[in-house]
Amino acid sequence: MKRISALVTAMLLLLLLSVPTAVSAQEDRTTYSFAEYADSVKLIGRTDVNDTGIVPHTTASGIAFYSDCSGNIDLTIKGSKTLFDAQYFIVYVDGVIHKRIELDHRIKGRTVIETLTVAEDLEPGLHRIEILRETEEINAQCEFLNITLNGTMTPLADAPMLIEFVGDSITTGYGAYPFSYADKGDPVDHPSRQAGTKSYAYLTARELGMDIQVCCTSGYGAQVGWNGDGVNMQDMYEYTAFHHNRQAEWSFARTADIVVINLGTNDNGARKNKGVSEAKVLEGMKNLTQIVKTRNPDAKIVWATGMMGITFKKGITEMVEELGGAEAGYYFCILPTGMSGGAGHPDEAQHAAAAETLVGFLKTNVLPEDYTEQYATAEEMESLLKWAAFVPNADDALARTELTAFVASEAEVSGTMTTVYASLKQQVMQTAVIAGAVLIGIAVVLTVFIVVHKRNARPQDAKETPDTLPEQADKTEEKGE
Fold this sequence. Notes:
The chain is an alpha/beta fold.
């Protein structure tokens, strides 16, 4: 029996060693420098590339990619403090918020380089990863230097439409996190209370399945704001990141299909203190609209107001009509008011309500009637990506057809997304091979056990017969005497 146990143990160990484990996967991780691999990810928002990495400048900017991976993903970030001592990022995995991470400058100095775990304990399979800035550019700058994971990266393709938001602290998501979420002792305007991906802007883009681009700064207006530098959005709009490097103009390589301008709150409050007339503010609003239109010639432009009170309603209405109204691609939308968040700004629920109103307005007034039929909705896209993230049911012909069509359409745009389907197919095949190996291994172990048991049983039966013969012989001899 000892020989049987040893043989079975050896077979099981051999079988286990033949199956990949999470530990070996973690050991096989690769670090990709974004100085070389920036084209392996999609750049979101006003994000650019320099000689050392990827720089997401503004709210809700960052990177997105597919990866057939498992375990943890680590991101090395360089951060430079300006106004505040921390900045925040949100990580989506397969369309769901995975975690919020902090780059802390409080103790470590004005400039820090830190490696942060952005995703943990991922199941083996195809995943969609998005890493986005939660905080605005004026607070602090950052740069993604490299990323470490046990797989390769493939960039997401562009969504069918790009929507841009131009705004102030409302659009940054300022105050969307309640005070209880922030560290005790932080001021009310601390970036820990900003949530760019909880803002009405990000929620609108995600609901419509559009790419997003944001140009916004707290305290600034279309013409005048609470800032003391004499700058307004007319000065800032054409630059990549005005407060970081006002000499670098944004490329506008991809122009927006829709631009939503949500300004006027700061203009309305600050103009009275600074002696600026309402007519001057409206003149600035019109000039900003023309700048936006020049940079995005085919865009529909939507002015919005109301989230912290309706301002300049009459003046904006007349401006939109003067520019030609809906026939010329100019609109005006009133959003619901709500100021229950930090420092009298909208909270998370109020941002969601504003997004719902704006989505409805865009679908009714701006987007083509067949928009939701032409392009997948956010829910459909998320469902499809979740399905693709795990080993699919081979009998699910509909899902397989949808994935094939989705990947094909992505490949037409990016030229590289076919690797996603190939990777998924390889994963399914590897899983089948492993499952087959396990079943064969179990069968082999059971067969060996049965054979060895039978062989060991036969000699014992054979030994019993010779052992009794002498006794029988002695008895026979005794009878003979």
